[in-house]
Amino acid sequence: MAKKKTNPHAAQKRKKSYRLTRKQKVVFGSFLMLFSVALIVAFISFFMVWKADFSTLNEFTDRTVETQNWLSKFGAQISHFFIYRGFGIASFSLAVLIGLSGIFLFLDLKLRNLLTYWVWGLFLMIWASATLGFFADKNALLGGMIGFEVNDFLQDYTGFIGTVLLLIFIAIIYLVVRLGVTPELVMHYFQKTKKEAQDDFKEAKAMGAERGKNTHASITEQENEAEQEEAYSTPLSLEAKEEEKKSPPATPVERLVIRSSDQQDDDVSMEVQATKEEDQSLTDDRSQQIIQKSGEYDPRLDLGTYKFPSINLLRDYSKDKGGITIDQEELEENKDNIVNTQIG
Known about the structure:
Layout: H1 8-14, H2 22-53, H3 72-87, H4 92-107, H5 111-132, H6 140-178, H7 183-246, E1 253-259, E2 267-273, H8 280-294, H9 328-343
Antiparallel strand pairs: 1-2
C-alpha cells in the first residue's frame, strides 16, 4: 500500500496561531494604557466645558471651529458619546477597564482574570448608570442617556419603589458574589472594630497610669535632690561656724576716767576701743582671690553704650521761631495785684 505524501506547507498553515506575540502584546498594551489616560483626561474636561463644546459637535471636519476640551475635537466627540449619550459618570469604569487590559498585555499576565474584571466592571457600570438615572432631572450627565432610559424603563414596569428594591438587590449580588461580603463577615468586622477600640482604650489607660508613675518618680527625684542639696549645704555652715571659732577674739575695750579739777565728785567716764590693724598680707590675698574669680574691674564697661545727647534736644525760645513772648501790660497788672494784696 502506497504512503500518502504530506505537504510541508499545508502543515505549517495548520499550525499557524492567531495569538499575539510578546512584541505585539507590549505595543498593543502600551496603546491601550495611553488611550485609557486620554479617555480619563477627556472625561474630566467634558464635565467642565461640555456646554461650550455642545454646539461644535456637528462641525468635526471644520478645522476653523475650536473646542475647549483638553483633547480638542476628539475629546469632545468621544466624551459626548460615552458620557452624554452613554453611561454618564459611570463611563470612567470603561476607561479603567481599557487601561487594565493594557497592563495585562504589557506585563503578559493571565487573561482569564482580565475577563472577570471586564464582566463585573460592565455589570457595575450599568448598575451605577441606572441608579444615577434618578437624578437625571437635576444633572443629565450623572447617569447619561442610557442610565436615564434604563431607569425609566424599570419604573414603567415596577414603579419607583420596585426600581429601588431591584437596584438594592443587584448591589447585594455584587457585594456577596464579587466581594464575598456576608453577614458573618460584617459582624466579625464590627466585633473586631469594637475589640480594637477596647484595646486602644486599655492601652491609653495604661499609658496614662505609666505617665502618672513617671510624674511621681520625677517628683520623688526632685525631693531627693533637694535633700541632697541641703545635706551638701550643712557642712558648709559647720565650716563657717568653725571659722568663726578660729577667728581672733574681740578687741578688749579700755575704760578711761577723766576727772576735772573743779568737780572732783563728778567723774566723766569714756570707753575707748583700741583698734587692731589688720594684717596687710591677708588683705592682699583676698584681693587676689577676688580678681582671679571675677577679673579686674573695668569702669568703662558700664558706660560702653553711653551716647552724648545731641543739641537737637535743646529747645529754642527765640522770638523768630515762635518762642516765649512777654506781655508788659500783664506784668504790670500782676505787680499791682501783688502790691495791693500786701498793703491790704
